[in-house]
Amino acid sequence: MTKLPLPAILINGALVDQILVNDRGLQYGDGLFETIKIRQGRPLLWDAHLARLLLGCERLGIRSDGLLKRIEQDCQSFFSPALQETCILKLIVTRGVGERGYKPSNHVNPTVIVSMSPYTPNVPCQETGVTVRICDTALGINPLLAGIKHLNRLEQVLARQEWDDPHVSEGLMLDVDGNLVEGTMSNLFWAKDGVLFTPLLDRCGILGTVRQKLLSIAEQLDITVVEGRFSPDVLNSAEEVFLCNSAIDIWPVVKLAHKTWSIGPITRQFQAKLEEVYAC
């Protein structure tokens, strides 16, 4: 298939950039999305992204029969070994076009939106680290939606509106009980005494694909990982803190309010190991 110029959007396989106003993704946020990094025409952590998408479809009751075949056919337009630059592919699946009202039809065909745009990595953030803040906006608790990347991201939108300081790269979000959950766009890790810690995401938050890969890498390296509910105060005694997602890879955290950290060996080790995974 002919390689498409960037940026480009395919909706249900057609080169268009508009959806119907009665699409349930627009009407109700009734859908899911994945953000996937493309290097040299190859999607990174592709299987993990598709697995999470299918999990989301199962949770929301969105028809998934034949869905992966549709996605793979559409995405082939974007995957080419000749593509040397790093790009970001965004994959959106909505329940599809429906009648007015919350109750969905069992016979609706999902809408598949595939778009890709150029991406410039923020290398200074990866090398020298970032400053973060604690957000005032809290995440609601809903185990049914926990882990999946659904289209309802208003909590993150509200949280990201809280600051306009170019020196602050990310905001850390708590749940309504005051426990650490994640960043507005990232997952959170910290290390102390050789043990790696990360918030438990069984009640809210996103099970990031890079997060899951880092948990696998930790097991390979025989690094103990503790998932749990933690007050933000635990970061005061952390020796290293870092963030991750599919677009930023791993950002070391060097400052939160008056607390500062050096970029430690565990963070650097995970950065190197993730690059090895991407190179395979």
UniProtKB/TrEMBL annotation:
EC number in record: 4.1.3.38
Pfam families: Aminotran_4
Keyword Transmembrane carried by entry: no
Pathway connected to this protein: Cofactor biosynthesis; tetrahydrofolate biosynthesis; 4-aminobenzoate from chorismate: step 2/2
Keywords for the protein's UniProt record, in alphabetical order: Folate biosynthesis, Lyase, Pyridoxal phosphate
Requisite cofactors: pyridoxal 5'-phosphate
InterPro entries: Aminodeoxychorismate_lyase_IV (IPR017824), Aminotrans_IV (IPR001544), Aminotransferase-like (IPR036038), BCAT-like_C (IPR043132), BCAT-like_N (IPR043131), Class-IV_PLP-Dep_Aminotrnsfr (IPR050571)
Reaction equation(s) it catalyzes: 4-amino-4-deoxychorismate = 4-aminobenzoate + pyruvate + H(+)
Keyword presence, Lyase: yes
Gene3D superfamilies in UniProt: 3.30.470.10, D-amino Acid Aminotransferase, subunit A, domain 2
Molecular-function GO terms, alphabetical: 4-amino-4-deoxychorismate lyase activity
Enzyme class, spelled out: lyase
Lineage top rank: taxon: Bacteria
Quaternary context: Homodimer.
Family note: Belongs to the class-IV pyridoxal-phosphate-dependent aminotransferase family.
Classification via NCBIfam families: pabC_Proteo (TIGR03461), PRK06092.1 (NF004761)
Protein name, UniProt field: Aminodeoxychorismate lyase
Organism listed in the record: Neptunomonas phycophila
Gene: pabC
